[in-house]
Every structure is written in structure tokens, then in C-alpha cells.
Design a protein that fits this description.
UspA domain-containing protein; three-stranded antiparallel sheet; 7% strand; 2 domains; transmembrane helix; transmembrane; membrane; rod-shaped; mainly alpha; 3 helices
Length: 113
């Protein structure tokens, strides 16, 4: 009986950690808090996370992770003024515009071209 309860406890902790890691990738909320919610809430926490917590699509394909600049859907609106060094997102704005974070990946490595 103690072995079964130990297995359930380990499974519970691993599930909380797995949800926390997934939430840090696929959610705009804190991965730590989602992991804690699953650890405390058990299967109900997992259901809530799956239904509410995942607000970003699944993992990106390898073609998306290239360092080649990609169009942001603003073709023909001027030259590229900024590029995200993390994902390659391009921005077509006035050169004096400040961009703090990438709208695509959330990265902070957006530089002027």
C-alpha cells in the first residue's frame, strides 16, 4: 500500500512539473503558478489548465526557428526597420520607433537594422 501511495505522490509531482514547463512555453501566465495549481488541484487542475491555461499554439516548427527575417504581413509598407534576433520577426516602422519586445516570440532582442 505504501508503495502505491509513493508512486501516486511521485506521479503527482512529475505532473505538476510537466504542466509548469508546458505553461512556461504555451501560456502567457506563470508556469510556476500553473504547476502549483496542478499539484494542489490534481486532475481538476490539469483539466482547468488544458481548457483555460494554454493560450498559445503548440510548439513551433523548425522552419519557424530560422534566423532568416520573415515578413510580418506588412509587405510594401517601407523598408524593414527592426528585426528580432530570437525569431527573425521583421518590423516596418519609422526608424525612430522604439520596440521593447517581439510581438511574435516575446523576446527582448529586437534591434534596428
Amino acid at each position: 500500500m505504501a508503495g502505491f501511495l509513493g508512486f501516486i505522490l511521485v506521479l503527482w509531482v512529475v505532473l505538476g512539473i510537466a504542466v509548469g514547463i508546458d505553461a512556461s512555453i504555451n501560456s502567457s501566465q506563470s508556469g510556476f503558478l500553473w504547476g502549483l495549481a496542478v499539484f494542489i488541484g490534481g486532475i481538476f487542475g490539469v483539466l482547468i489548465y488544458v481548457l483555460v491555461g494554454r493560450d498559445k499554439p503548440g510548439r513551433e516548427t523548425s522552419t519557424r526557428r530560422t534566423n532568416q527575417p520573415r515578413s510580418a504581413g506588412t509587405a510594401g509598407q517601407g523598408d524593414v526597420s527592426h528585426v528580432c534576433k530570437s525569431c527573425g520577426e521583421t518590423y516596418r516602422t519609422t526608424p525612430s520607433t522604439e520596440i521593447d519586445t517581439c510581438r511574435s516570440c516575446g523576446g527582448i532582442h529586437v534591434e534596428r537594422v
